[in-house]
Amino acid sequence: MQLKQYLLPVAMLISQAVWAQQAVTGTGKSVPNTLLKGQAPDEAYPFLVVTELTLPGCKGTGLTAEQEETHASISESASRQMQLLTRNEEAGYKTEGCKRIDFYYVSDTLDLRMVMNQFYKDNYGTYPHSVSIRPDPGWKAYLGLLEAAGK
User: Which of 50, 117, 92, 102 is nearest to 71 (CA)?
Assistant: First the structure.
């Protein structure tokens, strides 16, 4: 029975996302979680959640390293919030100018949009953002990220 207490931490280490990055035309890039490549689509996660966040005051010519770090930090916070709400898989993200678009596959959408919109409003109220949810049982959005990244 002592082994059980170590299974969760080990499983969490193994399941950490692996991000493959590929620049796309213009000022954007597509970054899929390559760990999901062999298991997509996963019928346990039939819904796609797309969060978009734009940094205020950013110039549309691309992100500085500091702005990318800000985006990554906000995305990490949003991911932790979503993990509290429902089981999910982080599928990856895209950047377009000053905007970061994160893709998650979730098992349940109950109250998800409301809670995530409130999360962004409470923590990043001056940042334009949106949360959309739609069925995507074939994981077309994720496969599109892979294709855009050339993976």
Answer: 102
